[in-house]
Amino acid sequence: MEGESPPPDDDAEFGVPFPGRVLPRESWTRTRWRDTGGAFDWAAAFGRDGARVVDLGCGNGRFLIGSALARPEVLHLGIDLVQVALDYAAQRANRRGLANVRFVVGDVVAWIFERLAPGSVDEIHIYHPQPYYQEADRGRRLLTPEFLERAWAVLRPSGKLVVQTDNKAYWGYLRRALEKHFERAIHKGPWPDAPQGRTRREIEARRRGLVVWRMQARRRDEPLPIEIALPDFDANRPKYRRRARG
Q1: Would you say 170 and 213 are in contact if contact means Cβ atoms under 8 Å apart?
Q2: Is the entire prediction scored with pTM above 0.85?
Q3: Alpha-carbon distances of 128 from 11, 47, 59, 102, 174, rounded to whole Å
Q4: DSSP 115
Q5: HSE of 181 in the Cβ direction (CA atoms, 13 Å)?
Q6: I want to staple 125 with a disulfide (CB 3.0 to 4.6 A). Which of 35, 101, 162, 186 is the partner?
Q7: φ and ψ at 85, to 5 degrees?
Q8: Structural domain tally of the chain?
Q9: Is residue 15 part of a domain?
């Protein structure tokens, strides 16, 4: 909806201002990029090269926009299947004059397996992947062993995978599942670059009193010879199960 009225200048979520400031119209940019169906061409999209950051399921772009403002030399790519979220992300990035961000509507699974070439990305960020609470939907979870192996392949040597969730069961699974391909480092407390939250979901979760778990994982040179189970955990929090039974 780039042709519609953009968000107001005092744009905020749950009282937390969106990163950056709105520039005069002559400084606005265009950050939407159309999926061509082939491998993503970084040079064509940005007109230059640099370190590359990908946010899979970027939502309304809060993290990417904040990171792009702080790291203008770094290229940022956001992918999400929700058109409305991407429209607002692009509007906000455009109005902040960002030339180092591109937003694409698409399925992140197709993107990581078909659009992002092996050894082409420096950072992959995944914030609050959908845990899918119903048992019948467990097969739809994003962070499977196959997905994590592909993320390892897409990352350059010493590349970084950042994951975050407010679901305790998902967190327990990720602490084990990332071990094969990544050297894990748990990040305690809020991110220093966004102490009130890197994403809308994080801000909302903390507002509701939920614990948020964060991890930065460095790509191993070679995977460990261990097997990783499928994400077949029970994602329901006990209080939700009690509420459903009652």
Answers
A1: no
A2: yes
A3: 22, 31, 10, 21, 12
A4: I
A5: 22
A6: 162
A7: -60, -45
A8: 1
A9: no
Beta-strand relationship, 12-13 and 213-219:
unpaired
Domain that holds residue 70: 51-245
Rounded distance between C-alpha atoms, residue 138 and residue 63, angstroms: 27
Q: Is residue 232 part of a domain?
A: yes
Average pLDDT of adjacent 10-residue blocks, the chain of 246 residues: 46 91 96 93 96 97 98 98 95 97 97 97 98 93 98 98 97 97 97 96 95 98 96 77 42
Would you say 104 and 41 are in contact if contact means Cβ atoms under 8 Å apart?
no
Residue with token string 């009193």: 209
31 in a structural domain: no
Judge whether 16 lies within some domain. no
CA distances from 137 to 61, 106, 176, 205, 228 (A): 26, 20, 21, 22, 20
- CATH code: domain of residue 120: 3.40.50.150
